[in-house]
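Appendix C reproduces, verbatim, an entry submitted by the partner laboratory led by Prof. M.T., so that reviewers can inspect both the input and the predicted structure.
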Amino acid sequence: MMDIKKIISTGVFLAAAAVLIVLGMNFLNTRDISDCRNFFSGEDCWMCQNGEWIKHGNPYAPQPTTVCLGDKVQSSDIIIDSPLTNQLMTSPGTVEGRAKGHWFFEGIFPVRLLDAGGGEIARASAQAQSDWMTSGFVPFRAELKFDKATTATGTLILERNNPSGLSENEGRIEVPVHLKVTALKIKIFFGNNKLNPQAECDKVFPVEREVPQIEAVARAALEELLKGPIGQEKSDGFFTAINPDVKIQNLLIKNGVAEVDFNEQLEYEVGGSCRVFAIRSQIIETLKQFPGIEEVIISIDGQTEDILQP
């Protein structure tokens, strides 16, 4: 009789354990797993690292569909609750966290948003949300407004308010973020013998490219032109008459005239009137697509005479 009871008890225990395992597996399969310390998952999980989901072991759950954000950025004096690392910032963007009282002066400290090149996109003051005259942590909030971003990544910088100017009172913390770039479609002009069977020297044709929507869009178009045809454009027969390694030294647009200055590589070993006409046409047509540009003057090292001669 005792053996039967033991067998029944063992069976009940095993059944209960099986139910728990099944429930655990179902639990894993119906949620985004991002914690490798989870009781069921052990080391089989998805980890969010540097803005990407990384597989550890063999997790039951599929790759999470939620946006992978990083951790909070923090130091002994300040904790950034929002944004997290690699989070997308849009305008207006909110910055929130907690900082020790000595980070503030008159209840504020500066916050800046920089693009990938170090250019300042926005600036604001983080405001203390409670009494800042304390040695403990004080909640703060700042709102950043900006028109547009020209790079897909940027850096949020929070600085300790330091009216004394003393180096020992300085403080700074950075948060890497993603930025939404507004794209603008433009035309770049190249030669194409398939579209120009008569091989007319000054005949050029447009391809479409996307550049960030910035004020210096004409310069951005020229930079794209100097890259030459890419990818499918080459397969479609587009080519450039412009030498590699040509650099834009200056571009000035005033009163309907675009004056663009290049380095000497623009006419290096360029011979024949046909190629000269092609180079000029590519530059002129690429610039004249923009409203307000009616004439284009090309120079090399500041010289406009006797350049690009056949």
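The radius of gyration is 31 Å. Additional entries are available on request from the coordinating office.
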